[in-house]
């Protein structure tokens, strides 16, 4: 006899109808979701229904046919390997896309070529205008009108510096706000994935696939992969001795062993950028056991020699007989059996900076986060801003902590390093923190490539250095220097301003309306007395001789007496009511428009000095100017003109008040003129922008190709689904026809047999 009975054939036909109907339903669901984001094509997995038993009376003529077909499950068509490749590529796409956008914002500020007229940019053109005004002034020395013209050109230049600096600050603030919004988006995604894990886990307990929830989760994971490079793992979580359920975990890629978890089943973390954070120790090396605080439970104190494993994690620390945590110190080692065989180099050393995580207020390393100094973090305009990121402890939707293998709550906050992240979050962090040539020694310890990474702070510092070099050079040229040639920024004394006193005698004074000149009594033994005696000897009266000390018109005197009078005129004069000294040279640029303070000039605060603005300081035509001679000396103007093309050295130390700890601050990072330095800044930005754009386009193209490959597997193809629909419709019709045929056969057998 056959394995399947007569009426069993009806069951096979019935199951065929059911399976065809179910397959048509799956096909219809695929077609309905053809435009649904993240939808994964589904498939009804069919299995043949077969009896595991055997007939009581076996016969070689019996055929083992089976009982029909069943739908074992509905599964999704996905390629996990393509998912991994795509998400890895998305991290690179996210990184370079964010960087391209940030550099584009910078180029809107600093792109001189794009903003200028013809071949010149705005600041470039203003440098040329200032040079032109100086050249014009060279033909009109000591002309106040031309001095004013030069000052007007210089004022336009400093205002451009101010505008660029303010705009860069605004770009940085916008970038910081964008990063903070991204952190919020990441936290929302992490919460959603964790909550979906809870729902999928609950469905798994009831043996449901929750395919639509998995699709939603996959879309979120794809989004997360653009913010940070992640690794996704699927494992089985035991519920009890007899059952288990799938668990999804997400970790930061290349974050060490054990890795840093973002999602661990039904537990998830949150990313934060606190406004203040513990000062990190740049020498800390988690891979070096020396300096770890505790002896780990993984140690074997009974072996010979003892196996000593060190840890910074209090939860992993071994306890002594009294329940005290065993510290990594010499006393504890000696208490361990056979401790003399332990390598003494591994003994805890409190002075070993590499084993300390933080820095205290004195800058000394410490392992105690409560003793750590607090530094600014994620604050706009803060030069100490490192944008340190942290991960909160893993918690479930009810706020319960995940437990370690010892059953203790894991409540530790995880500090993320400078290069722990990769993706758009890292790109925006670098745009906000990286200083290139101005990076400190600590920056380089945190990130060995810090001195070649350039973000907004680099361009701010570069612009500050250019503005300061320009201001300092002109200030020194228009003031004095000490005997060693160092600038002392003292105003240059020109003499006395000319006026005619009440007796019609030409004298020198600052304010003819309020000040008068008076004569000191002449000491016959002094130089003045000797000059007066010589004048009297030439035939002048005593009073006339003394009057000559206050006169400018000395043409009636012999040349030797003219020279003698000029030498003693200046010290002979005194004032009543105000000073009579006249100064021409002085500080031209200051850090504020209402002062002459030349210290700490930046691109944001560079201004025309107060004295130059009100006219009490002017551009010196010559350092050897003589107010008593109608001189046309212009050596200093030539010097100022030469400054515009002088090959100057730029060092980080030039702005040590802004970046006091720049690595190799006394090393020249550029040599050239003001305009060449400006062009170099633009070239660096343009090169970085071009290179980043090329890399972005490359990664985007690869990502798109991988996504197309994923879609070829997971996406809904209308032609393929239409083919499936016809196949299942025909199988449905065939199963129905089988049912009709069997019915006709049985009817003939039962009712037609006599």
Strand content: 5-15%
Give the strand order of the largest sheet, numbering strands 1, 2, ... along the chain.
Answer: 3-4-5-6
What is the count of helical runs? Answer: 17
Low-confidence stretches: 508-518, 573-580
What does this structure look like?
The chain has 754 residues and is α+β, with helices and mostly antiparallel strands. It is 42% helix and 13% strand. A four-stranded antiparallel β-sheet has the order 3-4-5-6. Strand 17 and strand 18 (506-508) form a beta hairpin. Helix 5 runs antiparallel to helix 6 (211-227) and helix 5 packs antiparallel against helix 8 (424-433). The longest helix is centred in the first third of the chain and has 62 residues, at 144-205. The two termini are 23 Å apart.
What are the defining features of this structure?
42% helix, alpha+beta, 754 residues, 25 strands, 17 helices, 3-stranded antiparallel sheet
Question: What's the topology here?
Answer:
Layout: H1 8-32, E1 42-49, E2 68-76, H2 80-110, H3 112-115, H4 122-137, H5 144-205, H6 211-227, E3 230-238, E4 244-252, E5 261-264, E6 267-268, E7 271-272, E8 276-278, E9 294-295, E10 310-311, H7 330-335, E11 358-359, E12 365-366, E13 374-376, E14 390-391, E15 414-415, H8 424-433, H9 441-446, H10 456-477, E16 492-496, E17 498-500, E18 506-508, E19 516-519, H11 527-537, H12 542-547, H13 559-572, E20 573-576, E21 581-585, E22 589-590, E23 607-608, H14 610-614, H15 635-643, E24 648-651, E25 668-672, H16 674-714, H17 718-751
Antiparallel strand pairs: 1-2, 3-4, 4-5, 5-6, 7-14, 8-13, 9-10, 11-12, 14-15, 16-21, 17-18, 19-20, 22-23, 24-25
